Request: fold
Amino acid sequence: MSGFLKEFKEFAMKGNMIDLAVGFVLGAAFKSVVNTIVTNIIMPIVGIFGTGSNMADRFLVLSGGDGQTFTSLAQAQEAGANVISYGVLIDELISFTILAFVLFMIVKGINSLKKAEEAAPETPAEPPKQEVLLEEIRDLLKR
Reply:
């Protein structure tokens, strides 16, 4: 059993695993920020131009509710109506698009840095002193 724990510890402590965990946590935090921006800033503005209300509250009643007219998605769901909440889908699609665009820009920036690093000419390292001395001796012998 101790061999298993040792092997697991080696696996978990590798640099790539820690980097992945940090990236995952940062990605989740970034997603919540994007969702907040979309839900509280972008979608109300879109709603003003489209319907005069928040897009997340847009829905279509399929059945149930006994012919009632619902003013909000929460009210329709509370009454047990079968609804398609397309406003929430629009919110999520916009959130996904923003998140995908930002991640694309990050990856593009990292790739351009890698290309610049690869394209940079490497300065040759100084040869060891022994080699320099041998070259000087060779040059003297040629004369």
Summary: The mean pLDDT is 80. Residues 2-121 form a domain with the Non-ribosomal Peptide Synthetase Peptidyl Carrier Protein; Chain A fold (CATH 1.10.1200.120). Residues 15-50 form the longest helix (36 residues). The radius of gyration is 31 Å.
